[in-house]
Amino acid sequence: MNNIKVVFVDIDWTLFDHKNNCFNKSGIEAMKQLKQKKIKVILCTARPFHSLYQLGTLFQFEPDGYIVSNGGALFYQNKLIHETTFKKEEVRQIIKVAKKNKLALEYTTSTDRFAISKKTKEVDLLFSTFKEVVPPIKDYEGEEVVSILLFASEENDEQLIKTLPKSIVFSRFSPYSVDIIPEIREKGKAVKYMLSYLNIDKQDALAIGDDLGDISMFNEAGFSICLGNGKPLAKQASSYVSDNIWDDGVYKALKHLKII
To answer: Is 102 left (phi over 0), alpha (psi -120 to 50) or beta?
Structure first.
C-alpha cells in the first residue's frame, strides 16, 4: 500500500489504551514513522480540542492536523480551517434551561471549554473517565460555540427536549451526559472535507479506529483498520481487523500492510 498519503486516526481505545491508562507506545511510534515517510497524520476524535492537551495527546507526537468535537472543528497545521457553531441565541437559551433545572453545563469553542456552574458528581464521573480536569467557570460572553455538554440523567430527557431549541441535536452518550450540537455530525463528513482541503483522493487515505463513530470515517477512506478491541459493527465496516490496542494493534497493522 504505497499510495497512502494521509492517515486519519481515532484516539480513545485506538491510540490511548484505557485498559492500561496510557498511550500505546508502539502506536505512537507508528504515527512518528508515518510522518517520517511524509504521510500526513490527522487525529479524528469526538473529544474537543482542549481535551487533546488535557490527555497529553499533543505531547506524544505532532500531528499534521486534527478533527475535534466529532467534526465540529477542523485544524490543519494549527490553523482552524472549518467549524460549525450554534447561533448565539441558541446558546443563551440552552444555558437558561440548564440553570432553571440546576444542571451543570460545559460549552466548548474551537480551542477552549468552560463551565457555567459548580461541578456535580456527574461532572466528576465523566471527567475521571476521560482523564481530564474540570474546566474553569465562566459566564458565556458571546463566543462562537462548537458544542455543549449537559450533565443530566436520562429521567430529564423528555422535559429537556421540550424546552431546548428545536433546531439543535440532542445526543445522549452516557447515563449522566448529553451532547448538544448545532447539527448532525459524523467523522466521515469531516474527513471528506479535510480530503478536499488537502486535495487528496479518497483512495489515498487510510482510517484507523475502533468504535461505531469511526464507521463513517472508514467509509470515506480508501482503506480502513479496526482494532481487535473494536465494536463488532466497526470491524465489519473496516477493510482489515488488527490485534487489540494493548497488543500493539496499530503498529502491527501498519507493518503488516507495509505502510511503515
So the answer is: left
Question: Which parts of the chain are beta strand (E)?
Answer: 6-9, 16-17, 22-23, 40-44, 65-68, 73-76, 79-83, 104-108, 113-115, 147-151, 169-174, 177-181, 205-209, 223-226, 240-241
The three-class DSSP label of residue 180 is strand
Find residue 108's DSSP bridge partners. 113, 147
CA angle centred on 252, ends 19 and 238, rounded to 5°? 80
pLDDT digits (tens, 9 = 90+) for 42-67: 999 999 998 888 889 999 999 999 99
Q: Give bridge partners of residue 149 from the DSSP assignment.
A: 106, 179
Cα(207)–Cα(43) distance, integer angstroms? 10
How far are the Cα atoms of 9, 10, 111 from residue 174, in angstroms, in the given order? 23, 19, 24
DSSP E strand boundaries for 69-203? 73-76, 79-83, 104-108, 113-115, 147-151, 169-174, 177-181
pLDDT tens profile 132-180: 777 888 999 999 999 999 988 898 899 999 999 999 999 988 888 899 9
Sheet strands (E) in 69-211 = 73-76, 79-83, 104-108, 113-115, 147-151, 169-174, 177-181, 205-209
pTM of the model: 0.91
66, 90 contact by CB (below 8 A): no
